[in-house]
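Q: Give me the 3D complex with manganese (II) ion.
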Amino acid sequence: MNDARVRLRVGVATERAERDRNEDSVWTQDGVFLVADGMGGHDRGEVASRTAIDILRSLADGAPGLADAQRIVQEAHAAVRGLPKGVGRRPGTTATGVVLTEHDDVPCWLVVNIGDSRTYRMAGGVLEQVTQDHSEVAELVAAGVVAAEDASRHPRRNVVTRVLGGGNREVEPDVWLLPVSPGDRMLVCSDGLTDPLSDARIEAELRAADDPQDAADRLVAAALAAGGTDNVTAVVVDATLTRRSR
Ligand code: MN
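A: Here is the predicted complex, encoded as structure tokens.
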């Protein structure tokens, strides 16, 4: 029996920036931390991201594993696909984030991703992107056609290849289980943060703020100051491990 108990602190910041609406949706309760970036005409993007979050937040129940995550993502996909199309594009949304869970009595992060929003982990002051973008430019980088350092300026960088809803009948999410390490700082964010800011800059902002709310505020302010025009959302989750009291 493992005696570790995890205590979480969270900060969240979101801004509409220069768009008419904020189509990013966010959820930060019950050990579930999610960001969804909706797309579609009129208010369809907002509805899509909120619909996805409303289903994905049920990952709070029990101690979900990889199969639970796969199942609930399919439910979210079906719900977004069932939304009225309205005028223009079919509504769709990215979704990513972490759920605090347990596997064999070990505290774990369950990480979920569909699309080009991102989940990062900072451990020992070093930032690492956990998720892989489902975007055309990420595929071009993986194929060696585009250099990684040019990806953030590439004209195809915002073309997502997997979404919840949208035109596809099937969705293939990525899911991971990572043991929680003491001092882990998780960042869940939309592309409104990662388009204008390099990973090095994000790491510097995360190191500069001890408090997770300060860190989230700093990141969003930095994205806007760097010229970001898209909706921008940042969730920062800090984990500390303590002994379970008996
Ligand atoms: Mn976006």
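A quick observation: The first helix runs from residue 44 to 56.
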